[in-house]
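FW: tagging you since you asked about this chain on Friday. Here's the raw sequence from the shared folder, copied in full. Didn't touch anything.
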Amino acid sequence: MPHRYFTTEIFGKSAFLRGADAHHLGRVMRARPGEAVTLCDGRGTDYACAVRAVGPDLVELEIVSCAPSVSEANILVTLYIGYPKQDKLELIIQKAVELGASRVVPFFSRYCVAAPKKEEQKNERYRRVALEAAKQSGRGAVPDVALPMDFSRMLTDAAQNDAALFCYEGGGEPLHSRLGGAKRIGVITGSEGGFSPEEADAARAAGCAAISLGPRILRCETAPLAALAAIMTLTGNLQ
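HL: got it, structure written out here
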């Protein structure tokens, strides 16, 4: 498989890689003129390229052809994740990108164990995790990882989707019953402590549908990925 990189420097029949990606392609992978490389613009288009010239911090490529990425889902799924402790969020982001999520939004709720701390710095790392996962999994777009929101703002954001699904340990409707023909889907899952009854009521009042993920209690790192995989299966995006 040709090497795969993301860049916004695409001009006519020429494209450029700089910095760490240029170093990786030129120095680590020892690319030579004529070698095939796949570039992505991060917005769903893949470019088949050939290396034209390799420098210490710049690789110039010739665009041979371009086409819509076949790896992007036909729906947009945003995961709203109750902020977990330790490094669980990195794992969730990585696997969510592999499964086809379009956006990840952490949020703080009543029973979150983790507390806000250096979130801008952490967000830079989370975005790198998303980028590397997009490269590894052959994505044509890099999912956005938002800065954490409070619970109220998160509900307002989630309600903008065609379907907003509130995964609640207190029970709810089957997931498949609320998908319909939705193209933009928001999935809300809790942290280690789950949700309070008041938060569940607020979610319903905001227009979110309470959803059950089955009779077992899933860990906070399992629930969003299970829901995402189920949605991708039900919409034909894991075929």
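FW: The chain is about 30% helix and 30% strand.
HL: agreed, and The chain has a mean pLDDT of 94.
FW: great, closing this out.
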